[in-house]
From TrEMBL, chain A:
Main subcellular location: other
InterPro entries: Peptide/Ni-bd (IPR030678), SBP_5 (IPR039424), SBP_5_dom (IPR000914)
Pfam families: SBP_bac_5
Name under which the protein is recorded: Peptide/nickel transport system substrate-binding protein
Gene Ontology biological process: peptide transport
GO CC terms of this entry: ATP-binding cassette (ABC) transporter complex; cell envelope; periplasmic space
SUPFAM superfamilies on file: Periplasmic binding protein-like II
Species for this entry: Lentzea waywayandensis
CDD domains: PBP2_NikA_DppA_OppA_like
UniProtKB/TrEMBL annotation, chain B:
One Gene Ontology term, aspect cellular component: plasma membrane
Name of the protein in question: Peptide/nickel transport system permease protein
Residues annotated as signal peptide: none
Superkingdom: Bacteria
From TrEMBL, chain C:
Organism per entry: Lentzea waywayandensis
UniProt cross-references to InterPro entries, sorted A to Z: BP-dependent_transpt_permease, MetI-like, MetI-like_sf
Subcellular location: Cell membrane
Pfam families in the record: BPD_transp_1
Protein topology in the membrane: Multi-pass membrane protein
Family per similarity comment: Belongs to the binding-protein-dependent transport system permease family.
Keywords, in A-Z order: Cell membrane, Membrane, Transmembrane, Transmembrane helix, Transport
GO CC annotations, alphabetized: plasma membrane
The protein's name: Peptide/nickel transport system permease protein
Species classification: Bacteria, Bacillati, Actinomycetota, Actinomycetes, Pseudonocardiales
PANTHER family (UniProt xref): D,D-DIPEPTIDE TRANSPORT SYSTEM PERMEASE PROTEIN DDPC-RELATED (PTHR43386:SF1), OLIGOPEPTIDE TRANSPORT SYSTEM PERMEASE PROTEIN APPC (PTHR43386)
Automatic annotation (TrEMBL), chain D:
Protein name as it appears in the record: Peptide/nickel transport system ATP-binding protein
A GO molecular-function annotation: ATP hydrolysis activity
GO biological process, one term: peptide transport
Lineage, uppermost ranks: Bacteria, Bacillati, Actinomycetota, Actinomycetes, Pseudonocardiales
Organism, as annotated: Lentzea waywayandensis
Sequence similarity: Belongs to the ABC transporter superfamily.
Superkingdom of the organism of origin: Bacteria
Keywords: ATP-binding, Nucleotide-binding, Transport
Alphabetized InterPro entries for the sequence: AAA+_ATPase (IPR003593), ABC_transp_ATP-bind (IPR050319), ABC_transporter-like_ATP-bd (IPR003439), ABC_transporter-like_CS (IPR017871), Oligopep_ABC_C (IPR013563), P-loop_NTPase (IPR027417)
Domain ABC transporter as annotated: residue spans: 5-242, 266-504
CDD domains membership: ABC_NikE_OppD_transporters
Length: 558, 316, 290, 510
């Protein structure tokens, strides 16, 4: 039994130290377990390679225990030394930090005093020690690798610890994995897992309809709708990890306080930003642009991570109210001019992204109603990056995928993330810099009491919402579909309204259960083959007949 | 002397291709490292490291010099997307493209030239009108649209994507059948457009020769009409046609990009599209250099071939 | 991008005089173009602004053809028929301007390299040949990736990559004309470069340039649609190519929304074919009888 | 004896246009018949109809009996069997009548294989006096004369009893023409072939054929023994044809009046012109006096055209000087432009010397416009046109070149030169492409212009007859050098150089 999954995104590398793309890291999760994992049901931390962990009282030293009995796919035992080897490789080799370097920047050292124990010492207390999304590689394979940079990790089958073993990879075509019989949780219920590369989700959706693949995600709303009622196909509308935002240039500055970019100065005024946010009809966007397959945006953490998600209270809530927004702008000292406008703004988005193309039309209209003419520019990915990095925007579309631990998404909005004096080296999202926010960020980073940390994180989101360096527009649903005539069930994460693909884990694939007697719809394919053969036969016959006829009649023609 | 000139010209063209490739993709404002690390936890230091790793932190002239010298050694740089040498990435995608383009070109050349000869020989006949009309129409059809249409019309008969299924039996016959099955729609799409052009080229080339006095000579000798055509007219008319076929190789390349994109055929065209959506500049640059270089080389070959086929052209 | 040499006879140096039939096809083509031009000109005047504003349309998405919207609606509920009408202008505009640009460059380069000998001609010829063999679409893609997105970029990308065939043709024609005894006679009369180019070369090149331009429009329209399909078009404009891009982006094929896929493609085919037929008919008219 | 070929009431129409009108002609075995006529007289159509090679658009009526069989009604299969085996054709313009990408040996052998004739292509090659290894050559590797020999060899391949030769020597040089004609005459005599030879050149037919037929506007106007026809033409057209070919040494054909010793107008001193490595003009000295007509004769490739171009300043000399009216001619700038006003060029083919898009008035006025000459353009143009004997000018001024006949076109070219009031006319083969009946008129015009305007001329020609007709002095050019020059009588009647003698020998005698 084979589970065939459509992927639309490229695979950049099979080397887990280099793989950056979501698709590659997802396959990496299937090949290699992490030190810890997240449960499928509620995304809490659970056993990975390690089954026990213990921080020291000063929270600087963490001890992980790798239990006996877990094996690599080639039968070798998995030990603490493999874990230490992996982390130390990343600490010593800058290339090995390409993909997941951020997890180890705060590490002092990593040691394995015995086969079962890993000891990690950090420079400062680190709250995310149980969210180290780093694939652990087998020491006995990787210690022979001379240069990480040029290592494609293509010694098939690739030795791993995850539920599947990589057996074949043909670039641009497909990736084949086999169920790992040595997997410590037990082998998957089917034999092979194939990822088939598709150029666009359109083709993938068609293939799903034809039964050429069993599982598709990242569908556009229209594609999702097109599968409604299709025999043998079950759709899964799940809460996604992504949000889409509208960035408002708050008067971008470098880390040293130098102004950067050319954002409209009016936007420095928080009242203007609030007015703009108030004029955007989030419900309409969700209904018309997302076709309802999204939830209205509020805080930085999507509702799928319920614990960390924040919703404004009744009085905090900014309701869609163009009239109030108009009044606020008048009060802020930006009255309408004779032609009815206040000041023009530019909106930059990505060409080819359906959301940007459509939502910009709505925003154009909404802003028009509060006297702000919008100049919409849809540009290439790179030009969009360039503009947002150099802060040469007024309004811009952006979006992020979030992790279970909110640290990363929160960190994007601290002052320190802004670029240096030369305008380079910034990783800030929206050029936000706020003392209150930064203080809260530092607090949550060393708050090991989860309940308290959740509180702080919510406060941060509230502050962000209040200061509006960006309007969170929507949390998009992850739209997936699968052949329920081939596979009866998949494990979603979280259990309620969760996703099958793009999980924080490998549950979706691992937990797939084949349908009783799966009948592969191969019939039509042979019809096609036969048809092709028939066409060729007819062609040959025609040629033969014509050649004969010509010989017969050529004598009397000229 | 002339041979040396040909090679010299081709070499010069290749250098121009290389220069063009570099400047076209370095004129761009934009920091590839930013797009490479988008949506990922990164720090400024890591970005700087990547920049150094890809040599993006050096001045432009130095970058060009490095690029050019390594190009001479067959090194096209490292793809931002794939973290691997561009040359390797391109090389592994070469096979499917050669298969598709090769099949389509062979069919298109054969069919196109044959139709063109027949249409020109019986000029203004029903056959001529129909084939010329169809060819002109096909010439007007955007390749990608034809592909999408074929896909919609054929429904479930042919696979919608890729070059082979992952679950086909590993034996050669099954694999070959599978690839052939996948090949049908893309090659039909590509053939339709390319063949139309070849047909028109061949037709006008033969019409050009139709009133050549040597054909009268051949008829006067008592040769049968089809022998006159086969032995005298076609060998003369096919020479300029072949040159044009080679000259239009760019068309095939262009067709391959859109066709591969529509059918997810895992070749260079698809790679081109992928590099485009990145955009992965080094990869794009490499693809431009490789395809343009291939076209230049093809033309050199056509020139040499012409010299062999046509006694009037002295190559050496 | 397609070479115009195939549909015209230029590169083969021959002209296909199709007689009455070709002329009739040319007239039909011209009629189609006249209708298209009319639509392009009238569309902005007749289509209510709200009808194509995604924020204001009221129809449902993906409606099949029916009363009210006789070509159905797209993914946002806009009428495909109105989109088609609106797109006509963009497609024709891009085709025409890109062709004018390409043919202008080609004519200039062709005459210069044909008329003047020596290093200049050698260099120009070299460059022309170089660009002639380069896959034009690849180059156009590269150009539109690196330049800011917009209509200007598309026009520039197509124009800058499709001039070489015109240049080759004009050069050949220039050389032919200059080899004619009447040019020698003009020189012997004391005529300089300006006289020879202005009085003899240009007038005899212009008709062919006209034909070439007509065919170049055809190939430019196909090129525009291809670039738009690859997502390199101007996203704020509606063109036929952009509609096909949208159709693909939003899943017209799996939706079986043939009404969103067929019309733009057919429109491209019909208009391109019309330009081709007109070009061929013109070619037959302007070519002096042998 | 049955005639080999008999045409009975042959009429050919192209659409409504009748090109051959009721022609009756018979040719006995072993007989040689010349068919003469100007371009458009229908003579080639007759030749092609013999093997039914006319295009589909031609409608043929009448009978074409080849050995008693009617070609017009044969089945295709029978026709193919007859073609080449019963009659073969030597086509004009051998370059284009041979397949350029096939070895000539194969092309000679092709009909032999097809008709199952024993024989060897190599022997045929030898028969036409070519080295055997030429059989492996491609047409473009052969000279014009050699190609024509190949055509002859091919025509003889299947041992036909009739050979039709359609302008077999037209594109050839005088000397080569003589050789090819000699070859044909010899082979026809040796193999006792019937020969139907078609030419516009009476002298060529006079050399080869016993009988002569003359066609005019599709009709056969005269037929008889060659000598008789030429000596006593009965039809005025025949008379015009015979008159057009001057006989060297015959005072009746010498139209130039004796002129006094003139002072020099143009002097060429030690002129050298190189084309790359080849030296086209090699140290030429030449003088043209005021009002003098000088003929520069030589075979093609002798450098005479290059010399003319260089004199005109259209080509830069490698060394040497051109002196006009006492002053050296500038090589560029205003002075060259001024010189060009004084010296005008008349080209061989008037139809291509006129821009087909320009009306006659524009073509004539072109020089005026180039030089920005003041005055009433229209009256100047009218005067020049009338001087070139196109009267009344108003009839012609608005016409396009293709609406005029060849002779009229040449007059327009001359008018375009005259309008600038030049002092020297350089005429490159001024009558070579004109029909015989027109050529005399143009020659007369040139002479009249000299008489009335004192216009000096340099006539470049391969045609010794023309030189005899018109020139005061003759210069003979060979391989870039002038090998002999002097008065026309001296050079043409008592040649001193071997080459001149060879040229004179090659001229066909009527």
């Amino acid at each position: 039994m084979i589970l065939k999954v459509a992927i639309v995104q490229q695979i950049d590398s099979m080397n887990p130290f280099l793989a950056v793309f979501q698709s590659s890291t997802e396959i990496g999760r299937l090949m290699y377990d992490y030190l810890t994992a997240y449960t499928a049901a509620d995304q809490t931390v659970t056993e990975g390679l390690a089954n026990k962990w213990e921080p020291s009282p000063d929270k600087l030293t963490w001890t992980f225990t790798v239990p006996e009995g877990k094996k690599w796919s080639d039968g070798e035992p998995i030990t603490a030394r493999d874990v230490a080897f992996t982390y130390n490789l990343m600490l010593s080799d800058s290339v090995a930090r390409t993909a997941n370097g951020s997890f180890v920047t705060n590490f002092q050292d990593v040691t394995a005093p015995d086969d079962r124990t890993v000891v990690i010492r950090t420079k400062t207390p680190q709250v995310t020690m149980l969210a180290l999304d780093v694939p652990i590689v087998p020491k006995h394979v990787w210690e022979k690798v001379s240069g990480i940079k040029d290592y494609a990790n293509d010694q098939m089958p690739v030795v791993g610890s995850g539920p599947f073993v990589l057996t074949e990879h043909v670039a641009g075509q497909f990736i084949k994995l086999k169920a790992n019989k040595n997997y410590w949780r037990g082998a998957a219920k089917f034999d092979e897992l194939h990822f088939v590369y598709f150029q666009n989700s359109d083709a993938a959706v068609q293939a799903l309809g034809k039964g050429e693949v069993d599982l598709v995600n990242r569908m556009a709303p229209a594609q999702f709708d097109s599968l409604d009622g299709k025999a043998g196909v079950t759709r899964n509308k799940a809460q996604g990890r992504r949000f889409t935002e509208l960035m408002i240039n708050p008067g971008a500055q470098t880390r040293t306080g130098e102004p950067i970019g050319d954002g409209n100065p009016a936007l420095k005024d928080v009242r203007v930003r609030r007015a703009i946010a108030q004029a955007v009809d989030l419900d309409a966007l969700v209904q018309r642009v997302n076709l309802g397959y999204a939830e209205k945006g509020s805080g930085l953490v999507p509702p799928v991570f319920g614990k960390w998600h924040w919703q404004p209270t009744e009085q905090e809530q900014r309701r869609f109210d163009p009239a109030a927004a108009n009044a606020a702008l008048d009060a802020a000292g930006f009255p309408r001019k004779a032609d009815g406008t206040r000041f023009p703004l530019r909106l930059i988005g990505r060409a080819g992204r359906a959301y940007d193309e459509q939502a910009s039309e709505y925003l154009k209209r909404s802003m028009g109603e509060i006297g702000i003419p919008l100049d919409v520019r849809l540009v290439s990915d790179n030009q969009l990056n360039e503009a947002t990095t150099a802060a040469t925007y007024d309004l811009a579309f952006s979006g992020w995928a979030t992790n279970i631990d909110p640290d990363f998404i929160l960190s994007l909005h601290t002052c320190a993330q802004r670029p240096g004096a030369d305008g380079k080296g910034g990783t800030t999202d929206a050029y936000f810099c706020d003392e209150t926010y930064d203080k809260l960020y530092a607090q949550q980073l060393s708050e090991f009491d989860e309940g308290k940390r959740v509180e702080i994180v919510k406060q941060m989101q509230a502050r962000f919402y209040d200061q509006v360096p960006a309007v969170i527009l929507s949390y998009e649903n992850a739209l997936e579909g699968y052949r329920s005539d081939h596979f009866a069930t998949f494990t979603t994460q979280p259990a309620q309204g969760g996703v099958i693909m793009a999980q924080n884990g490998m549950w979706g694939y691992y937990g797939a259960e084949p349908a009783g007697r799966a009948v592969q719809a191969q019939g039509s394919r042979w019809v096609g083959l036969a048809l092709g053969g028939a066409v060729i036969a007819v062609l040959v016959a025609v040629v033969v007949v014509m050649a004969r006829r010509r010989n017969a009649t050529a004598g009397e023609r000229e | 002397m002339r041979l040396a000139g040909r090679f010299g010209g081709a070499a010069l063209s290749l250098v121009m291709v290389a220069v063009l490739g570099f400047f076209l993709f370095r004129v761009v404002p934009g920091d590839p490292v930013v797009s490479m690390t988008r949506g990922r936890p990164t720090t400024a230091a890591m970005q700087a490291e990547l920049r150094a790793q890809f040599g993006l932190d050096r001045p432009l002239p130095e970058q060009f010099w490095n690029y050019f010298t390594s190009l001479l050694q067959g090194d096209l740089g490292t793809s931002f997307t794939f973290r691997r040498p561009v040359a390797d990435v391109i090389l592994e995608r070469l096979g499917p493209t050669l298969l598709l383009v090769g099949t389509a070109t062979l069919i298109a050349v054969g069919l196109g030239l044959w139709l063109g000869v027949r249409a020109a020989w019986r000029r203004d006949s029903g056959f001529d009108r129909v084939t010329t009309g169809v060819s002109l129409t096909l010439w007007a059809v955007p390749t990608f649209w034809l592909g999408m249409l074929l896909m919609m019309v054929t429904g479930d008969l042919f696979p919608s994507r890729g070059m082979r299924d992952t679950d086909t039996a590993p034996d050669f016959v099954s694999q070959a059948l599978d690839v052939g099955h996948h090949l049908v729609l893309p090659s039909v799409t590509l053939v339709a457009v390319v063949c139309a052009e070849y047909m028109l080229v061949m037709r006008s080339s033969l019409l050009e020769e139709m009133h050549a006095p040597y054909l009268t000579t051949a008829r006067a000798k008592g040769l049968r009409d089809d022998v006159v055509r086969r032995r005298h007219a076609v060998p003369n008319a096919v020479l300029p046609a072949i040159t044009l076929v080679f000259l239009r190789f760019g068309l095939v390349v262009a067709g391959a990009i859109t066709t591969e994109t529509v059918f997810s055929w895992p070749g260079l065209g698809l790679l081109f599209y992928d590099a485009l959506t990145g955009p992965d500049y080094l990869l794009l640059q490499g693809l431009l250099v490789v395809t343009a270089g291939a076209v230049v080389v093809m033309n050199l070959l056509a020139d040499l071939l012409h010299g062999v086929l046509d006694p009037r052209v002295k190559v050496v | 991008m397609r070479g115009v040499g195939a549909v015209g006879g230029f590169l083969a140096g021959r002209v296909d005089r199709g007689g009455f039939l070709a002329q009739r096809a040319g007239v039909a083509g011209a009629a189609v173009l006249a209708v298209a031009a009319l639509i392009a000109l009238l569309a902005p005047l007749l289509i209510p602004a709200d009808a194509l504003d995604v924020t204001r349309v009221t129809d449902g998405a993906w409606q099949p053809p029916g009363p009210g919207h006789w070509l159905g609606t797209d993914h946002t509920g806009r009428s495909v028929a109105l989109l088609m009408a609106q797109g006509t202008g963009t497609s024709l505009f891009v085709g025409l301007t890109a062709a004018v640009l390409a043919v202008g460059i080609g004519t200039l380069v062709g005459i210069l390299s044909g008329h003047f000998g020596g290093l200049l001609a050698g260099a120009l010829l070299r460059v022309t040949d170089f660009f002639l063999v380069l896959p034009a679409l690849v180059l156009a893609i590269a150009l539109s990736t690196v330049l800011p997105r917009g209509l200007g970029t598309i026009i520039l990308a197509i124009g800058l990559t499709s001039w070489p065939s015109t240049a080759r043709m004009v050069r050949a024609q220039t050389l032919t004309i200059e080899a004619r005894p009447f040019v020698e006679r003009a020189r012997a009369l004391g005529g300089g470069h300006t006289h020879v180019i202005g009085r003899h070369v240009l007038p005899s090149v212009v008709p062919l340039v006209l034909v070439n331009a007509t065919l170049a429009v055809a190939s430019a329209i196909v090129a525009e649609s291809t670039l738009a399909f690859l997502g390199l078009g101007d996203p704020t404009r509606i063109s036929w190519g952009a509609m096909l891009h949208q159709a693909q982006l939003h899943g017209a094929v799996p939706q079986r929304a043939w009404w969103f896929l067929l019309p733009p493609g057919l429109a491209i085919v019909v208009v391109v074919l019309a330009f081709t037929l007109v070009g061929r008919a013109l070619e037959a008219v302007v070519t002096p009888k042998r | 004896m049955n005639p080999l070929l008999e045409l009975k009431n042959l009429t050919v129409h192209y659409g409504p246009k009748c090109v051959v009108n009721d022609v009756n002609l018979a040719l006995a075995p072993g007989q040689t018949l010349g068919l003469a006529g100007e371009s458009g007289s229908g003579k080639s159509t007759v030749a092609m109809s013999v093997l039914r090679l006319l295009p589909k658009s031609a409608s043929v009526t009448g009978e074409i009996l080849l050995d008693g069989d009617d070609v017009a009604t044969m089945s295709w299969g029978r026709l193919r069997a007859v073609r080449w085996a019963a009659a073969s054709i030597v086509f004009q313009g051998a370059m284009h009548s041979l397949n350029p990408v096939q070895r000539v040996g194969d092309q000679i052998a092709e009909p032999m294989r097809l008709h199952g004739v024993e024989g060897n292509a190599l022997d045929l090659v030898e028969q036409v006096e070519l080295p055997r290894d030429k059989a492996r050559a491609y047409p473009h590797e052969l000279s014009g004369g050699q190609r024509q020999r190949v055509m002859i060899a091919m025509a003889l391949a299947c041992g036909p009893r009739l050979v039709v030769a359609d302008e077999p020597t037209t594109a050839l040089d005088v000397v080569v023409q003589a050789q090819v004609l000699a070859l044909m005459t010899r082979l026809v005599r040796e193999q006792d072939l019937g020969l139907l030879m078609i030419s516009h050149d009476l002298s060529v037919l006079a050399e080869t054929c016993d009988d002569l037929a003359v066609m005019h506007r599709g009709a056969l106007v005269e037929r008889g023994r060659t000598r008789e026809v030429i000596a006593n033409p009965r039809h005025p057209h025949t008379a015009a044809l015979t008159a057009a070919f001057p006989v060297i040494g015959d005072p009746a054909h010498r139209w130039a009046e004796p002129a006094p010793e003139p002072e020099p107008l143009l002097q060429v001193r030690d002129l050298v012109v190189d084309y790359g490595r080849t030296r086209a003009v090699d140290g030429v000295d030449l003088t043209i006096g005021r009002g003098e007509i000088v003929a520069l004769v030589g075979q093609s490739g002798s450098g005479k055209t290059t010399l003319a171009r260089t004199i005109m300043g259209l080509r830069k000399p490698s060394s040497g000087r051109v002196i006009f009216d006492g002053a050296e001619v500038a090589r560029n700038g205003k002075a060259l432009k001024a010189f060009r006003r004084q010296v005008q060029l008349v080209l061989q083919d008037p139809s291509s010397a006129l821009n087909p898009r320009h009306r006659i008035v524009d073509a004539v006025a072109e020089g005026l416009r180039v030089h920005g000459i003041p005055g009433d353009e229209e009256s100047l143009v009218t005067a020049a046109v009338e001087r070139a004997e196109l009267r009344p000018a108003s009839l012609y001024l608005q016409a396009l070149p293709h609406e005029l006949s060849g002779g009229q076109q040449q007059r327009v070219v001359i008018a375009g030169a005259l309008v600038l009031e030049p002092r020297l006319l350089v005429a490159d083969e001024p009558v070579a492409s004109l029909d015989a009946s027109v050529r005399g008129e143009i020659v007369a015009l040139l002479l009249r212009l000299r008489r009335e305007l004192g216009l000096a001329s340099l006539i470049i020609t391969h045609d010794l007859g023309l030189a005899w007709q018109i020139a005061d002095r003759v210069a003979v050019m060979h391989q870039g050098k002038i090998v002999e020059q002097g008065s026309a009588e001296e050079v043409l009647l008592t040649p001193s150089h071997d080459y001149t003698r060879a040229l004179l020998r090659a001229v066909p005698q009527v």
